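Q: what sequence does this backbone want?
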């Protein structure tokens, strides 16, 4: 059971438009500005409190030039106020175009699930074992994995991060590959296939590039 009003956007549907403040302080980030010009690889993440998201941002930054070479622009939405994101990226620069959406309006528009933390959900979460980035010796409970990765990062977090986490958790993440006509062609929703064992997982670069190459030209 989730708090969603709509199911996730699927392949063949128009991508919901949005306008968000740009993390770098330039003109607002608007999806429709890419229409007719470029396909878009859109990643909807949660706040910087999430160590899995911090790694996904780094991965997106690494793969951005490969997608651009195939005619696809990368756009990520991070769920924290722009000034908090600017502080983070001052020390961890990225070439990504980033929009800030602390209230998760984009996630709701795209129907990304936010599970209700019922006793059944909490029990399932406690039973799940994850090692989504392969950095740990083996799968461990979700909270333990998050704590180990945060310690590895040496990232202390801010009061804003804590407020984001308290407001957002347990919002899931999603990716949408959108063609130049604004139609979604491929999606990835966290936990959609593996249940809670999929927390923190992200498609491989090979899977992403295969989806991009399959776009209609």
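A:
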């Amino acid at each position: 059971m989730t708090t969603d009003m709509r199911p996730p956007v699927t392949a063949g549907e128009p991508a919901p438009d949005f306008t968000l403040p740009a993390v770098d302080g330039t003109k607002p980030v608007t999806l429709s500005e890419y229409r007719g010009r470029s396909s878009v690889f859109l990643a909807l993440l949660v706040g910087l409190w999430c160590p899995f998201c911090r790694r996904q941002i780094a991965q997106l930054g690494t793969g951005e030039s490969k997608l651009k070479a195939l005619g696809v622009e990368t756009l990520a939405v991070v769920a924290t106020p722009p000034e908090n994101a600017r502080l983070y990226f001052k020390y961890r620069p990225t070439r990504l175009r980033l929009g800030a959406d602390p209230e998760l309006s984009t996630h709701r528009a795209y129907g990304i699930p936010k599970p209700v933390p019922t006793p059944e959900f909490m029990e399932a979460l406690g039973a799940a074992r994850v090692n989504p980035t392969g950095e740990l010796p083996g799968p461990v409970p979700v909270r333990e994995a998050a704590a180990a990765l945060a310690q590895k990062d040496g990232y202390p977090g801010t009061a804003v991060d804590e407020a984001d986490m308290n407001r957002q958790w347990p919002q899931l993440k999603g990716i949408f590959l959108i063609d130049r006509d604004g139609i979604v062609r491929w999606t990835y929703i966290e936990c959609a296939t593996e249940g809670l064992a999929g927390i923190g997982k992200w498609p491989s670069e090979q899977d992403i590039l295969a989806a991009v190459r399959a776009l209609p030209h």
